[in-house]
Amino acid sequence: MPPPSPRRLSLQQIVEGQRRAAFVGRQAELGLYRTNFALPPEDPRHRFVFHVRGNAGVGKTSLVREWREAAGEFGALTASVDESADSVPDVLADFAAQFAEQGHPLKALDRLLATYRRARHDAAGRLAADSETPGGAPSPGALAAAQAGLIAAGAIPVVGALAGGIDPAVVARGAGGLRAVFGGRARQQEEALLLAEPVRVLTPVFVAELDRVADTVPWIALFLDTYERTAPQLDRWLADLLTPGRYGDLPANLVLTLAGQRRLDPVHWGDRSRLVADVPLGPFTEAESRQLLHGRGVVTESVVREVLRLSGGLPVLVSTLAANPGAAGEANATAVERFLAGESDPARRAAALACALPRRFDEDLVAVAVAAPRNGPHAVPDLYDWLHELPFVAERHSGHSRYHAVVRAPMLRLQRTGSPRRWKAAHDRLADAFVARRDAAAEGIDPERLWAEQPWRRAALDVLYHRLCARPRTALPEALRAGIELCGQAPSRARHWARTLAEAGEDADNAVLRDWGRDLLAAITDHGPRPTAALGLLLTDTDRAAALVVRAWDRFRAGELDAALSDHGRAIAVDPRSERAHQGRAVILRSLGRHEEALADLDRAEEIAPAWAWAVRERGETYRRMGRLAEALTVLDRAHALDPSDAVPLGSRGLVRHALGRHEEALDDFDRAIALWPEYAWALVRRSRVRTVLGDPVGALADLDRAEELSPGQAGTEGERGEVYRATDRPGEAVACYDRALALDPDYAWAYGSRALALEALGRVPEALADLDRALELDPDYAWARAQRRRLAAEG
Which of 123, 157, 401, 609 could form a disulfide with 86 if both were Cys (CB 3.0 to 4.6 A apart)? Predict the structure, then answer.
């Protein structure tokens, strides 16, 4: 007798086998779920509920299918539902049907569900007949009450007709409600209760059936997919199901899995979090994406890299592009369709797409992006509120919302490739909106300090972003010029700017912008707080003179005076009329003691820009350092008159007045300077000197404490603190301060000279003479130290 032929596989089994073989990634999540079946329910590490969450397209449904297969490998009886079962009776009916297919019918539950369905059918017929009798339509209040009662009872999942044919309007007309409709016999009263409160009647029977079946199988695994849609109907029921004594005792070998886009509602799940394993899903890693692509035969490295770039690791995009690597448009449309599944209103779908264009948005920007009316069926406030119901929109609490990057990218690509004309027009509108915000933020701000103000800077970068997206080639020069200014400020600000170029390049699919953004980010990041490398890149393609001036200032701050002088000289060679290059070179020349050359550069700067206050103030500071105090005072008066909001001329003038013995006027200048610029550490240190002379050591020390907070580790601050202690006859504390100052700067000649007087006050004359010798060694022109040296030697 020939052996029996093996049973043929069905088409569905073959397809499912191929799907499972093609599943890649999520090994950590698979391992987590599998491990749970190896832990007995009594183990504290065991979890009774798994919650998989993440944006549409990250592969929640695929993972849930794999988990169900894994549960089956451990002998679990499994059942799964999605949004098609959106009421408790529907969920229970689906679970019962799937259990029966696996040889474990829930007979008691099936009988009660059959009664429930028959009761609905009978009620529909009786109430329909009742609706044909005279009596008029029910009141709006009766209609609302009937609907609310049915929804609360779980008889209908959403506002509308009861599945099975019972119209809430008809229920509202019924005399006395469902119990009256069913009559007075006991069985009919039971059916009325079942129809009125199906959750309360059906659930205990379901729990009892689960407990019975649990004795015959190792595990029971239940799955509810697309839970973000059914949670409003099922959340409270499931939470109550897990509450002791509410519907009966659940078997300990039950594992429940929920898969949705949002976090679980803390109102229902907060007290049950210890039961739940939260499993957030993000995009594929590069390794997982490559594994999927290689499994589909996509192995050419250039193609793989392009798919990685376009997909952002979003599994639905990786999978679509793996099937056809050139079908970016199809992949984008597929992903967007997934994100907006369930929304049929074309106006809302269009709004969701349009609001992906800004990097962040508020209600006003929604109006700009969507070009929608402020009132009507799709008014902006309504659209704005609706957008925040979408799972991929976040950060409303900050006043600026944004899309999840994985969702936003395919939405942008779909719009860019679908209609380039609309793409440009929308970005132009958004750029104009941010121009208005930028200009409003500039009110009352010194134009020289705009980039330091966050509201202005944020709006200005958004203007650049949208202009670059609309017209990359023509907007790039403006963007690079902005970068030159930012490189002269804090590195974090320059990073935001470089990232703006990179994002615009990615979103506009422009290789030039992408390369600029990548290279500038690398230059800023790799070279720490100094922008020298980034400025070197900007020298190749933009305003060379401006970039050279900014780089010269960076080198000057780093003490690279020769290099800084060279950059200013090159800037002047490129643009002889660059007043900033002349002014910058004057500052460096002055620091080198080349005062006359510095004044010549300032002459040229003022000739080019006669009303430019910065050149005038540097002239006043140069005169001060030359000892030409009367001329300095006159020039600094003029600088202050040209720009009363600039604190620096007031600080310099305060020091001049102090040197002239006009201490009260000096104090007034410093007070005004610090009021304009509270972080002006230089002025705080100098004001402490004036306060010491005026007999206010407490105020002087407070100024030095604040200066230390603003600019810690400065030798000059410690030196001035020593002066305060020396002036108040506390030479021991003064010496300690000078010691700290010299530890910070061993070549600080002034601190040696001042410490010598504190040592003299302590009777340590030989050490005082040694300090004066060291001061003169460091600065042979230090006339005051030479005079003190002669005095001490004569007295000795």
Answer: 157
